[in-house]
Write a structure and sequence with these properties.
single chain; alpha+beta; SH3 type barrels; 34% helix; elongated
Length: 172
């Protein structure tokens, strides 16, 4: 019999999550809300830490260099804001927490790649996340279409005014 806490935890877990390990280079698709608009932002970097693998609070810490400055972000894998995690490269590491990577730059920061089946690792279908991503794409397409229609209406109005001015000048 499951405890009440376990049932609640399972309720908030995603159906399927990619198996991410320390040393993987990943692309994390994250939903960003700016005002009343939403977009998907991709953060690509090296996983330097994985926490609570089997829990609904499982977290990865991803590090990348942006303009020569190290940037780290922690992502909760079961969060509704994380739409997709895609493993692009898998490296050979012997630790779970790669804190030493913070000090390394250039060639010394390279890790030895390991062959892996990229399609098998990344083929995880979470129907809710895919539906959410399709919905966001549809909303942005509708917004762009509405903006184009508004611009066309403004241009038609300006042309009508120009014709009226031209007709009034010809009468004089």
């Amino acid at each position: 019999m499951q405890s009440v806490i376990q049932k609640i935890n399972d309720k908030y877990k995603k159906g399927a999550v990619v198996d991410v390990r320390s040393g993987d280079t990943v692309k994390v698709h994250q939903k960003i809300r700016e005002g009343n608009k939403e977009r998907v932002q991709i953060f690509q970097g090296l996983v330097i830490r994985t926490d609570n693998k089997d829990s609904h609070t499982s977290r990865i810490t991803v590090r990348r260099l942006a303009s020569g400055i190290g940037v780290e972000k922690s992502f909760l894998l079961h969060s509704p804001l994380v739409l997709k995690v895609e493993v692009t490269k898998r490296s050979k590491v012997r630790r779970n927490y790669l804190s030493y990577m913070r000090k390394l730059t250039g060639k010394s920061a390279r890790l030895t790649g390991v062959e892996f089946d990229r399609d098998a690792v990344n083929t995880v279908h979470d129907k809710k996340a895919e539906a959410e991503e399709a919905k966001l794409a549809e909303e942005t397409a509708k917004a762009a279409e509405a903006e184009a229609a508004k611009k066309a209406a403004e241009e038609a109005e300006l042309e009508a005014k120009a014709e009226a001015v031209k007709a009034s000048h010809e009468q004089v």
